[in-house]
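Here comes my example:
=====
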Amino acid sequence: MKETIFETLKKLNFTEYEAKAYVTLLEESPLTGYAVAKNSGVPRSRVYEVLDSLAIRGDILVSPGNTPQYTPVPAKELIKNRRREAEENFELAEKSLAEFERSAYDRENIWNITGRNEILDKVKDCILSTKKRILLEVWKEEFEELESELRQAAKRGVNVTIIAYGEIASEIANVYLHYMGHEITEEYGGRWLVISTDDSEVVAGIVSLGKDSRAAWTRHVGLVMPITEVMIHDLYLMEIMEKHRELLEESFGENLVNLRRKFSIHPDFKKHYVK
């Protein structure tokens, strides 16, 4: 049991001797340095150095006098202090390293991501760093996994617009139900996901193949701009279909099938992108 506690304390930046001295004081205190050495197994030649280190860090308290005595900070307080220090260090690191974020992923590269979970993790990162607008094409299955991050973005004042394939309802986003969700799923043989954030970053790929799912992530303007514009044109078309569906289908067939037939190179409309 003690060995497990010692290993845990080491993960909180205790040395082996510091861990032994601290646990000894938790078991019985106050103690003199001599008693700590005797009860903990810390060598007498090192015990005062160890106790001084713990005291400077605030993990134990010292009662001065001819024979100083030591008592530990309670375990709950120690954990609370360590948690606060860790959070402060993470915040400091985040601020200090932020200036390198853009240089780490220059705008000329396209990065491959493999695996559905990995793709969704990257999309979540993009959502959490968005400042103004999110455009998202998504199926219900993936939306449910991204909803928490989207909600956080909306609370920050980010405009969230979703082109939904399947029934998606959300009070935190402008949701456009695609009028051909089922047909498009059939044509492409799977579900994809496309997200554009702040018109500066894009993730796009197939997400229905589990570990074999694959996507591209980029800040390359040559891809971000046209992908974002295609999504905006999808929104244009859905607004137009909502208001003038009967007239458009009279000219171009149900769900504009005649236009799809005109511009498809596949007689059965199957894109065969997913192997």
Q: What stands out?
A: The first helix runs from residue 2 to 11. The mean pLDDT is 88.
